[in-house]
Amino acid sequence: MSNVEPKPEEKKASTSDRPEKIGDMPKIIFFLTLTYLLLLIALFITYMTWSAFRLRVPSSLGPLPVGAVWFAAAGAVVSSLWGIFRYNHTWKRSFDYHYYIRPLFGAVTGSIGALIYLVLLNLGSKAKVVVDRDTFYVVAFVFGYADYAFLQLVRNVTDVIIKPGVNASTQNGQLS
């Protein structure tokens, strides 16, 4: 099974072998994440109540309903809030940049994850699969929330498509 983390021999030596300092989370992370949440809520309310705005927004991006992008970003913000609540006193500063762009990254991972979901469903079926928008919303939210799961999915799909198959004679490092 593939892993997103590089193999030990692939890891490059860091400039410092000292362990990373752990401390309190910078308050800006909480306020920025709260701002993202409020912006997403405002966007949702605007979309639902202002018909002129709703008419200017496309209903889909190809086979993906445009709302999936919102749900993916919302999943990322929920994930960020969980991380803040869980680790606010044991914060690793190396995560700061991840939290700065988390909703954007979640929007991408959730949206692409929903498209991969559709492609995999179609690959496993003889007839074209039609997925309703609510299913896209849930899949986008989950992959926006769980970016590691998205990265693992991409790694697994890549392994299936690009890597050659392994047969019994090559599995133990012996060629037939």
Q: What is the succession of H and E elements?
A: EHHEEHEHHHHH
Overall number of strands = 4
- Count of the domains: 1
Cα separation of the termini: 23 Å
Largest sheet: 2 strands, antiparallel
* Radius of gyration of CA atoms, rounded to a whole number: 20 Å
Describe the structure.
The chain is mainly alpha-helical and 176 residues long. The chain has one domain (25-161). The chain is 62% helix and 5% strand. It is built from eight helices and four strands, in the order βααββαβααααα. It has helices at 27-49, 51-56, 67-87, 96-100, 102-123, 133-145, 147-162, 168-171, and strands at 22-23, 60-61, 64-65, 91-92. The strands form two sheets. It has a two-stranded antiparallel ribbon. A two-stranded antiparallel sheet has the order 2-3. Strand 2 and strand 3 form a beta hairpin. It is flat, with a radius of gyration of 20 Å. The model has no long low-confidence stretch (mean pLDDT 84).
